[in-house]
């Protein structure tokens, strides 16, 4: 019965190649194709681990259904005369087996075929997205909807369309496909002036191997300690990361006068400020910082810095100014008429000189992941993994599910120094954590 329903749906909504939907890249997505290089592509991963091993055949059927619902995510990257654009894929990509490490390089050729991957390892379903397709919020909606479809087919259950799960057999709405940056651009542009941050360094891993370390922290313990410091969980964990970075720089360079600023890039989901149901990129960022040359910082002091920086900048008025800066560049008639190869060279130069020099690393927190109760009993955990930066060795993704916070550090150098300092800060605070790693002695 369910097979007949799926067949009828696919017959109805499978479009011929000539009628596949195509979309301009959203304002935030335009930089990512230009910033690529031979050993780096801006790809991130979201995954769900189930209690039972994944049935790949059922997952393939679920993926065939789900991709039709997400034409802006189930897409390939195409090259135009003046801009790149997205084109909906004709069919779902083949499901892959896991590699020895996550987020392997996504080549231009692969992106031309399909700019996302679905990977299975035992009980884990992972999806890796080229960042031009979507942001963390859109990716999570795709992943949860895919898993809901899989569970419905596998266990013959019905999962309500709530908590970010969409009806896979409905047509996508135009609001979901909207580039929300232009309509929320303010009348005043923000300045791009900023100071450089301290960057970590180390011995590169051979063969492009990426080290992944996950800290599993009890939500209740972390909340209790955050409340003792009179702050929120997001502010508290950001301050812990900045304290670890500060301690690592002190270890690397004891001469305080020669130290650089500790700056943490924290993405901001703009859907919490501007009404939107888009599944495309719709995020900006805030960058709290401390200057070690001014003296020592307690954790309470860092918490206050982060709290006030976020309070000042995470407002509709401020973010509209930041959006305007980027949108105005895109609207410039001269910029629009410049051929794509020249645009790419200019945007790559801007990205290299500005994009990653202004923070030590990114700490991207998706927040609490919720699913319907009927679905939750099949799920052990969720994970969020950012790719490393192009010119810096670390990045970090964070979320909570159930009673656990999962913080994934990824790095392309051998030394696990930041993870060590992060763990030491947690220990000093009396916060317990279990640590998992894919290190293989390389």
The separation of the N and C termini measures 51 Å
Mean pLDDT: 92
As a percent range, the share of strand residues is: 15-25%
* String of helices and strands: HEHEHEEEHEEHEHHEEEHHHHEHEEEHE
- Overall radius of gyration: 22 Å
List how many beta strands DSSP finds.
16
| Morphology | globular
Low-confidence stretches: none
Structural notes for this entry:
The protein has 442 residues and is α+β, with helices and mostly antiparallel strands. It contains 13 helices and 16 strands. The strands form three sheets. Strands 8, 9, 10, 11, 12, 14, 15 and 16 form an eight-stranded mixed sheet that branches. A five-stranded mixed sheet has the order 5-6-7-2-13, with helices on one face. It has a three-stranded antiparallel sheet with strand order 1-4-3. Strand 5, helix 4 (108-113) and strand 6 (116-121) form a beta-alpha-beta unit. The radius of gyration is 22 Å and the shape is globular. The termini are far apart. The model has no long low-confidence stretch (mean pLDDT 92).
């Amino acid at each position: 019965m369910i097979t007949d329903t799926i067949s009828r749906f696919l017959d109805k909504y499978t479009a011929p190649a000539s009628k596949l939907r195509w979309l301009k890249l959203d304002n935030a997505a335009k930089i990512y194709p230009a910033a690529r290089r031979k050993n780096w592509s801006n790809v991130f991963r979201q995954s769900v681990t189930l209690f039972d091993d994944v049935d790949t055949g059922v997952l393939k059927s679920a993926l065939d259904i789900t991709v039709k619902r997400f034409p802006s995510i189930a897409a390939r990257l195409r090259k135009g005369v003046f801009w790149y654009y997205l084109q909906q894929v004709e069919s779902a990509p083949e499901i892959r087996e896991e590699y020895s490490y996550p987020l392997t390089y996504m080549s231009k050729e692969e992106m031309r075929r399909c700019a996302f991957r679905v990977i299975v390892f035992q009980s884990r379903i992972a999806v890796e997205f080229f960042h031009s397709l979507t942001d963390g919020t859109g990716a999570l909606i795709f992943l949860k909807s895919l898993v809901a479809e899989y569970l419905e087919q596998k266990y013959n259950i019905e999962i309500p369309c709530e908590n970010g799960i969409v009806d896979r057999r409905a047509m996508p709405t135009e609001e979901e496909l909207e580039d929300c940056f232009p309509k929320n651009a303010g009348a005043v542009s923000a300045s791009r002036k900023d100071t450089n941050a301290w960057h970590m360094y180390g011995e590169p891993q051979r063969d492009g191997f990426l080290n992944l370390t996950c800290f599993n922290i009890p939500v209740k313990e972390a909340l209790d300690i955050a409340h003792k410091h009179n702050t929120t969980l997001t502010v508290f964990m950001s301050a812990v990361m900045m304290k670890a970075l500060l301690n690592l720089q002190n270890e690397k360079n004891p001469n305080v006068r020669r130290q650089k600023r500790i700056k943490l890039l924290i993405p901001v989901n703009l859907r919490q400020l501007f009404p939107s149901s888009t599944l495309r990129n719709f995020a900006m960022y805030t960058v709290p910082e401390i200057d070690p040359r001014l003296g020592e910082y307690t954790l309470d002091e860092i918490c206050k810095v982060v709290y006030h920086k976020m309070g000042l900048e995470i407002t509709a008025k401020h973010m509209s100014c930041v959006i305007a800066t980027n949108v105005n560049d895109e609207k410039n008639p001269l910029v629009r008429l410049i051929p794509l190869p020249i645009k790419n060279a200019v945007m790559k130069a801007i990205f290299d000189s500005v994009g990653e020099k202004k923070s030590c690393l990114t700490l991207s927190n998706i927040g609490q992941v919720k699913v319907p109760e009927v679905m939750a009993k099949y799920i052990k955990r969720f994970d969020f993994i950012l790719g490393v930066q192009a010119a810096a060795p670390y990045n970090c993704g964070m979320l909570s599910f159930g009673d656990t916070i999962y913080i994934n550090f990824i790095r392309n150098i051998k030394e696990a120094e930041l993870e060590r300092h992060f763990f030491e800060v947690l220990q000093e605070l009396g916060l317990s954590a279990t640590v998992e790693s894919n290190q293989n002695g390389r």
